[in-house]
Automatic annotation (TrEMBL):
<feature type="region of interest" description="Disordered">
    <location>
        <begin position="1"/>
        <end position="35"/>
    </location>
</feature>
<dbReference type="InterPro" id="IPR000835">
    <property type="entry name" value="HTH_MarR-typ"/>
</dbReference>
<dbReference type="GO" id="GO:0006950">
    <property type="term" value="P:response to stress"/>
</dbReference>
<feature type="compositionally biased region" description="Basic and acidic residues">
    <location>
        <begin position="12"/>
        <end position="26"/>
    </location>
</feature>
<keyword id="KW-0805">Transcription regulation</keyword>
<dbReference type="GO" id="GO:0003700">
    <property type="term" value="F:DNA-binding transcription factor activity"/>
</dbReference>
<dbReference type="InterPro" id="IPR039422">
    <property type="entry name" value="MarR/SlyA-like"/>
</dbReference>
<feature type="domain" description="HTH marR-type">
    <location>
        <begin position="40"/>
        <end position="176"/>
    </location>
</feature>
<dbReference type="InterPro" id="IPR023187">
    <property type="entry name" value="Tscrpt_reg_MarR-type_CS"/>
</dbReference>
<keyword id="KW-0238">DNA-binding</keyword>
<keyword id="KW-0804">Transcription</keyword>
<dbReference type="InterPro" id="IPR036390">
    <property type="entry name" value="WH_DNA-bd_sf"/>
</dbReference>
<protein>
    <recommendedName>
        <fullName>HTH marR-type domain-containing protein</fullName>
    </recommendedName>
</protein>
<dbReference type="Pfam" id="PF12802">
    <property type="entry name" value="MarR_2"/>
</dbReference>
<dbReference type="InterPro" id="IPR036388">
    <property type="entry name" value="WH-like_DNA-bd_sf"/>
</dbReference>
<dbReference type="GO" id="GO:0003677">
    <property type="term" value="F:DNA binding"/>
</dbReference>
Length: 186
């Protein structure tokens, strides 16, 4: 059986064949009442503003307390956690879910701040090898604790918000310790 590129990454995987984004939707192809996929649009309408609210708060707090924004901190974390192996621009991009150009810009800012060192790979000089500096690891340690604390606080507060409580409840079905267990000390 030959799988075409069009069918290879079918999403969601359990939907019937022929239900692709690039095909026109008719009322016959929409999920029936009671189908859990029917409410995904409404859920998405709530998730996006929730994400934006939390992300902007985290960005402000991290910039104020540690001098690093959320996106840069996530890039620094990808480099720091790759230790002892050096990270590459591609590995950071994949970790962040962004393209290589965006990752490269974030990493250039981190390098300029003295939090990341960049060197060429010995086997291929086109590949940059990235390592966190001692200062970068210190920023990561402090700022990631702040990030964890602020995320727990945000989820705790939003769990009682009329608009977001049901989304937070869905996100917090971890069964153990997670972001919804309430604030911890930074």
């Amino acid at each position: 059986m030959v799988t075409t590129i069009r069918n290879a990454g079918r999403w969601p995987p359990d939907r019937p064949k022929g239900d692709f984004v690039d095909e026109p939707h008719t009322s016959d192809s929409l999920p029936a009442a009671g189908d859990p996929w029917r409410d995904t649009g409404r859920l998405w309408e709530r998730v996006v503003p929730l994400f934006s609210t939390v992300e902007s708060r985290l960005d402000r707090v991290l910039l104020h307390r540690h001098g690093i924004g959320l996106a840069s901190l996530m890039a620094l974390g990808a480099v720091t956690r790759s230790h002892p192996e050096p990270a590459t621009v591609g590995s950071v991009a994949r970790h962040l879910g962004v393209n290589a150009s965006s990752a490269s810009r974030l990493l250039a800012q981190l390098e300029q701040s003295g939090w990341v060192n960049r060197s060429s790979a010995p086997c291929d000089r086109r590949i940059s090898r990235l390592r966190a500096t001692e200062a970068g690891r210190g920023v990561w340690d402090r700022a990631s604790r702040t990030l964890d604390h602020e995320l727990r606080t945000a989820f705790h507060v939003l769990a009682f918000h009329e608009k977001y409580a049901h989304i937070v409840a869905r996100l917090c079905r971890t069964g153990g310790t997670g972001p919804c267990d309430g604030p911890s000390s930074p």
